[in-house]
Amino acid sequence: MSQSEFNVWCKWDPLKKALVGSCVNEKYFEHVANIEIREKLTQMIVETQQDLDYFAQVLQQHGVEVLRPTNDDARLDPNTKSSQVVNIQLQPRDFFFTIGTNLLPIDQDPISLLSRYSKVLPNFNKILQKPCLSFLKMMKQNNWQVPPAPNWTLIGKDLFMDMERTSTGLEPISLRIGDSTRRQIIEWAQEWFPQIDIHWLEIGGHNDGCFHTCKPGAIISLHDIQKYHNTFPNWDILYLPDKRWDAAEGFMQAKKLTKGRYWIPGEEDNKELLTFINTWLDDWVGYVEETVFDVNLLMIDDKTACVSKYNKDVFEFFKKHKIEPIIVPLRHRYFWDSGLHCVSLDLYREGDCQSYINYN
Length: 360
Prior knowledge:
Layout: E1 15-20, H1 35-61, E2 65-67, H2 85-90, E3 96-99, E4 102-105, H3 110-115, H4 124-127, H5 130-141, E5 152-155, E6 158-162, E7 164-166, E8 173-176, H6 179-192, E9 197-201, E10 211-215, E11 218-222, H7 228-231, E12 236-240, H8 249-258, H9 271-280, E13 298-301, E14 304-307, H10 312-320, E15 324-327, H11 333-336, E16 344-349
Parallel strand pairs: 1-2, 6-9, 11-12, 14-15
Antiparallel strand pairs: 1-16, 3-4, 5-6, 7-8, 10-11, 13-14
Helix pairs in contact: 5-6
């Protein structure tokens, strides 16, 4: 491994170091008076941590050094609503982006964000290098209104960035990145990454929930999000159908209370539990009604993929492209609105900046 702490240029180079998120510990809800709510939520966070631990184990078995943040000191404050600290350490991909040999903390409070990872990431001096400091300065100048980390997709010399800044509330699209900000991002990239070309997308959602580049020439995608003949000409695209939530009886049953933001199978009639979540855990949940988890996968290398469940079309596509799938369950993904890509973060992949897309 080189002297750099970070090295990522695409999603399929051999993964050597990664973050895997952590959930809060089983004492988080110890102050909740309602024993049924306390036990159900405690079961959920324990099982979430078990699944994350298994994910880390699978990566380690494939030669990946796995770093884990901890939420051991987090507790539900009975006097205030919950803190998004939980999401920060559960879903590192939502807050960080690795570009080349640099890690960017893309958040309104980057120092606080980094401090929450201080036990697992290298010291600030190894992260806050000139490209990162320059980016943070630009973010501040633009009132932090830049594309969030999940809206970035780096494929060698081509960086795809969605122009819609997204939120996790009931209004999925909150604002469009302005021309001035885009010009500054291009100028920043030209200064620090002159080998990279930026391509602007108009998806209106996190890239990793909409398309995934599995290896050169192969993409899994939702329908109608890109004109791939322009962005990835001649690549083989597997289009997945939108999730038919209207066919999921339990989800539709609970939707009156959850507004499509989350789903806990088997608890559709548990009004007390769902009301508690809406009141106290509002900033934990996303907008699961728009999510297709089969896209949200992690490539260990160009021959090995981690997926959260079996999907006939995906597995046939993998077979066609000589990719071996490994099922890594995330039992509560419908609550957290997070797939394997969200709860992990590539820190180091063997490889360098190459050109994978032929635009001629």
